[in-house]
Amino acid sequence: MRAKGAEMPGKDCVKVAVRVRPFNKRERDAGSHCIISMASSTITIQDPRNSQSPRSFCFDYAYWSHSGFTRDRSGLYVPEEPGGRYADQGSVFQDLGEGILENALQGYNATLLAYGQTGSGKSYSMVGYGPNKGLVPTLCDRLFQAIRANQDSRQCQVVDLLSRGSRSPGGLRVREEQQRGFYVEGLRRVPCDSAPQVEQLMEQGTRIRTTATTHMNANSSRSHMLIIFQLKQIFSKESITKQSNINLVDLAGSERQRVSGSEADRLKEGTAINLSLTTLGNVISALADVAVGKKVVHIPYRDSVLTKLLQSALGGNSRTVMNAQIAALSPADICYEESISTLRYAERAKRIQNRAVVNESPTERLVKELKAENARLLQRLSRLGQEGRRAEDETKELRRLLTHNELQIRAIQTLWEQHLQEALKDWEQQYATITQERRMMQMHPYILNINEDTQLSGVVKLFIQEGEWDIGLSDSSPRSISVRGLGIQERHAVFINVQRRVYLTPLAGSKVIVNGTPISQKTELQHLDRLILGSNSTYLFIGYPSERGGDDWSRYDYDYFQSELAAAEGIHLHSLCEEQTQGDSSAVPSQTDPSLLAVFYDYIKLMPMVAEANQMSQELHKGVEFKLEIKNLALSDSKGHDLEKDITVRVTSLENKQVWLWSKAKFVNRKFLMEELYQQHHMEQKREGAARAPMPRDRDPFWDPLEPLLLGSAHLWLQSLAFRIALEEQLEVLGSEGTEEAILQAQLLPCSPTGLTLGEDDILIDPSELLGRRLDFQLVLDQCCGLRWVKQARNRGVQIGFRMFDSAQPLYTPAVWHNVNPLLDQRVHFTSLHTSQGLLEHLQTSALVLELWGLQEGCRDLVSSLEGVRMTPEGCFIIDQAGPPDTATTVDPGSELSCSLRALQQDVEELRNTNAALKTENNTLRDQLNTARTGAECGRGRSERQGSSLRPSCDAEFARALKVFYHSMTSVRVQLQRLRRHRPSEESDLLGLRLFVDEQGGLLRDFSELLEQSVSSLKQDVAAIVRRKRERSGIWS
Predict the structure, then answer these.
(1) Confidence at 818, pLDDT banded by 50, 70, 90
(2) What is the dihedral of CA 281, 286, 292, 297, to 10 degrees?
(3) 1018 phi and psi, to 5 degrees?
(4) Which of 533, 599, 648, 833 places its Cα 20 to 30 Å from the Cα of 964?
């Protein structure tokens, strides 16, 4: 169920609890494994990439909500067995909520922080869903139960952080007073006398939060939510007033911190949300250091709005419970980085200590002081009256002060009562609006919002009554529906509700998508149709009540909308699974690789962000376009494995065709900065006469310095080198999406140490003969033909990069510019002084990856670095450096003498070997000559002489046959790769599919014929060699 740790020293230490949620749909589909285990109050997390290094953390409370639960008839999640380990909502409140309530009733401030990545369950634990009420609604119920149990004068107030009326462009301002500390100016306080009223206000607050995030082009994971309950208790008998605040904080998604820090970028993450989370972490670290006795000069409360408002909660007058995981920990292996970051964050927080005191209302304190002063004045007046008129002037002054104090007391009390009455009227108005909305849901069709945060989905309902209704930014017409969002026009589309049928007609230039398909003309809507207006304003259409039935609307979540869009672009799980089974013949079709599913979900997560970035670029006149690409990591794999994929974003300047490739993390970081720039642009537009200063280019998130781009790669298989057979190839250079970027002419030439190409007599039948011997070969890059990169813009250039076996640094060819078919004429000599088993296996199973890099004007060339590279005195690059250390030299201008000495030693060793071979051959020839002279056993002697001349002849014939076979197998491999890439178009109709089947059949026949010809030719050559050998040896007559 739950585990409670040992009591922490000091009653005012921050309590930290961790809760592990079940897998969500995305994690189940991805085949995720649970990497978190729990024992008592200890949480252990396992790195999925390194099973030998688990990390353990100990907290005050640990809740296991991942498994072991069932759903009863009322929809409540309960443990499967009585006393089971599953921790339900009631268990969490018993440990955390009870303490908050008790502290508040005692007059202390209390705070609960929910921290964790987006989608990890923070909102479920804080607010809950359906009958599974979270901490906030349960706390309200219990609070009013306590009020009813004790009928002293108490008032509970909800502080609404968002004004319902018009908001200033910069939001509400944070002020500071010596007594109050930091506070938000203009917050609305609403009195409540029951828990249902609080729940209705929470619903209204969620609605305003949803609308506000839509206006700001953001979602809930990029905003904090702070709920403040203010409890005021007046004890008449004791003449004591206690006032306490309960702060419930749902922080923004913590994965923003990981993404922004996971990759170097010239622009650091600058958004306010990330700044506030970073500052909160710095404050927690500083407070933790203070708690253990370290000297801390400064605690950076003032560095963000969030930490200003939480100053008393974190390090001042508050008893704080920080729930670092209540929605913070996903148990999935694909969320390891976010989960370990959250645990570290929570571990620092548990060391914080606060000094809590009972709170007294500033207003009540002032009234109390004034009453005491009045009592003193009355006492002095009575004494003066007894003494006569000798102090008449003093008496008048005292009466004036007394009257002034009474008027001040009356004014304070009147102002407070007026404030409460106005807030109560406002609340009654909002309650009437909510009631009216519920009635209209039973009368009219409507569209409801779908948000990435499920807690904010279904909050906004836009009703479509009979007649024509304009939908867009404009709300000037009485028959208009106002919506906000990127890409929404003043008049975006028209809803027509006639004869209980609803139609949607996009207006000119507007973007409207229905069920994943863009529409441009009048379209009839059906119940549960999915609508996307503008860049990414997602809505679900709900028909008339008679059409609704018992449909389950929950499956139409945010991911469903994006999956539909991806499928329309040809990206769906089915296509990824097909690529997997084609890339791995042993793969089971029913089992999808989790990495492919993770890539798919990354793709649909980034799709709306790319759409928003394109819209912001258009409105800000940046002239750049963003496009998602799925990168095949096989392009950089020497084994050619094609299962691993990744997401990249191609950024193109529409004016000069300049191109950048951004990683997923870099794009997410830049997207947040684009949002801030976009908001600043709109704020400046609202200010009359405000001149917009141009942004420096180095601070513009839409711009980056030009860098070489990896356009694609080709695989040059090295198997022929193991037999010392020359290879000449025309290689297809394939881009990340399988497009042909160029044709590269390359050669592998076995050679002598001096660079002379070896002949057929040097071909090996058994590659193991190379072990321990020197191997020299040359890589020749002749020409690159049909460069698509240069065809698109003639002011571009290319380079070829490669890394041979264990070379320390990649090598690059000189840059060639402005040519679609450039001559490369690059020749590189590689040497292995003592061929190892590792190199031999590499040659037989791997390929040399030749990378095609694109250059643009203003872009630096790629330069080969010789740092750590070893070379022979002749300038040959040494590979296979695991051999004896005395066989190679490191490039060093000061070691020429040593190089010459080693070269002489090698020459002497070679001469010795040659001399020994000549001696052996001389002895053989001498024996044959003696045998011929004696004439004894002529037949046998003739047979021996035939045998001695037969072996080298047969070896040469075998070598020639193998050379032909390897060349033919190269053609077979090219045909196989063409088959793997050959797929039908997503728009193909029945006739197109038939043509595809015919083409596929032709390719399969060609592949079969090539393979049969290669194998048959080898069989015939071997049979002919064996026949000739037997004929020469006299076995056949």
Answers:
(1) very high
(2) 170
(3) -65, -45
(4) 833
Distance CA 514, CA 430 (A): 33
Q: pLDDT, tens digit, for every residue of 126-172?
A: 888 788 888 888 888 888 888 776 654 444 444 444 445 555 555 66
759 annotated to bind ligand: no
CB atoms within 10 A of CB 379: 10
What is the rounded distance in angstroms from the CA atom of residue 245 to the CA atom of residue 256?
29
Identify the sign of the CA torsion 209, 210, 212, 217: positive
Which helix (H) or strand (E) segment holds residue 232: the answer is strand 225-235
Q: What is the pLDDT of residues 1004-1013, one digit of tens each?
A: 888 778 787 8
pTM of the predicted protein model = 0.69
pLDDT of residue 170: 56
Q: Which residues are 247's β-sheet partners?
A: 111, 228
117 is an annotated ligand-binding site residue: yes
Degrees (nearest 5) of the Cα angle 622, 625, 627?
A: 155
HEC secondary structure over 105-145: HCCCCEEEEECCCCCCCHHHHHCEECCEECHHHHHHHHHHH
Q: Which phi and psi angles does 17 have, rounded to 5°?
A: -125, 150
Tokens 């998602």 belong to which residue? 628
Beta strands in 636-701 (DSSP E): 645-653, 659-663
The annotation status of 213 as a binding-site residue, yes or no, is no
Q: Tell me the two tokens of residue 639.
A: 């084994």
Distance (Å) of CA 519 to CA 159, 357, 511: 44, 63, 8
Residues, the chain: 1037
Average model confidence (pLDDT) across the chain: 76
Q: How confident is the model at residue 531 (pLDDT cuts 50, 70, 90)?
A: very high
| Residue of 259, 314, 256, 252 whose CA lies nearest to 123 | 252
The tens digit of pLDDT for each residue in 461-507 reads: 999 999 999 999 888 888 899 998 888 999 999 999 999 999 999 99
Whether 121 has a binding-site annotation, put simply, is yes
Q: What are phi and psi of 846, to 5 degrees?
A: -125, 170
Residue 251's pLDDT is what?
Answer: 76
Dihedral sign computed on CA atoms, order 609, 612, 617, 618: positive
Sign, CA dihedral 215-218-219-224, equals: negative
The answer to whether the beta carbons of residues 42 and 62 sit under 8 Å apart is yes
